[in-house]
């Protein structure tokens, strides 16, 4: 569930264009996200076969492919509304194309993401913790949580949409306190309280 919500927030922020512009400064960071991911995988300790099997069972019990896809699609109306606000020339056909591309990309990429995540996940928990996770998510309460996640995520989406401008402005201010920003911060809504 946390993974699905985390993915939603990342997708939402990308679609909303929440990232501020800032001046380029030399960096020792990897040049691309791919290089960063490769570096992270290179430093991930090897997972035992038992831990990897438990991780696969956890992913299966979570119905990860279906849950993430359904969660992203349930959030799509709010993401598209925000995307359209930030891209006023976007037509209905363009919006439909974005939704279709997001659905297709989610379908294709979730399996690849799970393959890449499995060793990291498997080494982040002890085998005992993985056994407990699997037991919970394969059980009736865990399965109820999995089944209900897309519906409650969709109901939470308007609340998240309401908070996104404030979050974007806060992130912008915090980032600009660390680097030289060249763009105005996104407008945060006035607090009615």
Topology:
Blueprint: H1 2-16, H2 33-42, H3 49-61, H4 64-86, H5 92-124, H6 127-138, H7 140-176
Helix pairs in contact: 1-4, 3-5, 3-6, 4-5, 4-7, 6-7
Description:
The protein is mostly helical. The chain has a domain at about 1-10 and about 45-155. About 75% of the residues lie in helices and about 0% in strands. It has helices at about 1-15, 35-40, 50-60, 65-85, 90-125, 125-140, 140-175. It is globular and about 50 Å long. The chain starts with a helix and ends in a 17-residue tail after the last helix. The model is unreliable at about 1-30 (pLDDT under 50).
What share of the residues does DSSP label as strand, in percent?
A: under 5%
* Count of helical stretches: 7
| Class per helix and strand makeup | mainly alpha
Radius of gyration: 19 Å
List unreliable stretches of 5+ residues.
Answer: 1-30
H-E order: HHHHHHH
Residue share in helix: over 70%
Apparent shape: globular
How is the quaternary structure best described? single chain
Mean pLDDT: 77
- Beta strands, count: 0
For the largest beta-sheet, the strand count, sense and barrel status come to: none
Distance between the termini: 32 Å
């Amino acid at each position: 569930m946390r993974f699905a919500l985390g993915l939603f927030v990342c997708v939402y922020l990308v679609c909303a264009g929440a990232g501020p512009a800032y001046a380029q400064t030399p960096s020792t960071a990897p040049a691309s996200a791919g290089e960063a991911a490769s570096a992270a995988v290179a430093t991930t300790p090897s997972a035992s076969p038992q831990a990897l099997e438990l991780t696969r069972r956890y992913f299966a019990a979570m119905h990860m492919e279906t849950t993430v896809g359904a969660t992203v699609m349930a959030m799509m109306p709010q993401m598209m509304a925000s995307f359209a606000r930030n891209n006023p020339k976007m037509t209905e056909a363009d919006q439909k194309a974005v939704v279709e591309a997001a659905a297709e990309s989610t379908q294709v990429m979730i399996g690849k993401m799970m393959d890449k995540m499995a060793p990291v996940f498997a080494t982040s928990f002890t085998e005992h913790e993985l056994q407990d996770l699997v037991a919970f998510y394969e059980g009736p309460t865990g399965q109820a949580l999995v089944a209900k996640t897309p519906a409650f995520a969709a109901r939470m989406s308007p609340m998240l949409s309401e908070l996104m401008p404030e979050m974007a402005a806060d992130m912008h201010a915090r980032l600009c306190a660390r680097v030289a920003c060249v763009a105005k911060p996104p407008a945060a809504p006035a607090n009615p309280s």
